[in-house]
Design brief:
Blueprint (H helix, E strand, L loop, with lengths): L1 E2 L2 E2 L2 H27 L6 H22 L2 H6 L3 H18 L1 E2 L6 E2 L22
Antiparallel strand pairs: 1-2, 3-4
Helix pairs in contact: 1-2, 2-4
This protein binds zinc ion.
């Protein structure tokens, strides 16, 4: 089947899904940065990097069989996975205020919002 000048088959669908997912991470990151008015890399960026790069890597390995293309997507999924592990570990150790429920950094001793002492890790890894 030909559509938009492209001959579509299973690997074309997987490759274009990889392109769409991998590219969409930049829109997610840009949106987060604009929303927070500072450079921000949300967890969704790394999830999209992981999924998109695995789709593109499988397309490169099993369909294109091209060394340049394979190398380009050989490492992004590793970096994304490592960043996700670090992100969720960090979230687990953040502290939440018993009074105002503000989330404070791991090393905080006092709530950033109301100033009362905050105790050990209490935030779920959402
Ligand atoms: Zn507080």
């Amino acid at each position: 089947m030909t559509f938009l000048g492209i001959e579509w088959h299973m690997w074309k669908v997987i490759g274009w899904m990889g392109n769409a997912v991998f590219t969409s991470r930049f829109l997610v990151q840009w949106y987060a940065t604009e929303k927070h008015k500072q450079v921000t890399v949300p967890a969704a960026f790394w999830w999209l990097s992981l999924l998109g790069s695995l789709l593109l890597l499988s397309y490169a390995v099993f369909h294109e069989k091209d060394s340049v293309f394979i190398f380009a997507y050989l490492f992004p999924w590793l970096v994304a996975t490592r960043n996700l592990i670090i992100h969720y570990r960090h979230k687990k150790t953040q502290k939440i205020c018993a009074v105002c429920h503000t989330v404070s950094p791991t090393k905080a001793n006092f709530c950033m919002n109301c100033g009362i002492p905050v105790a050990g890790p209490q935030v779920s890894s959402v």
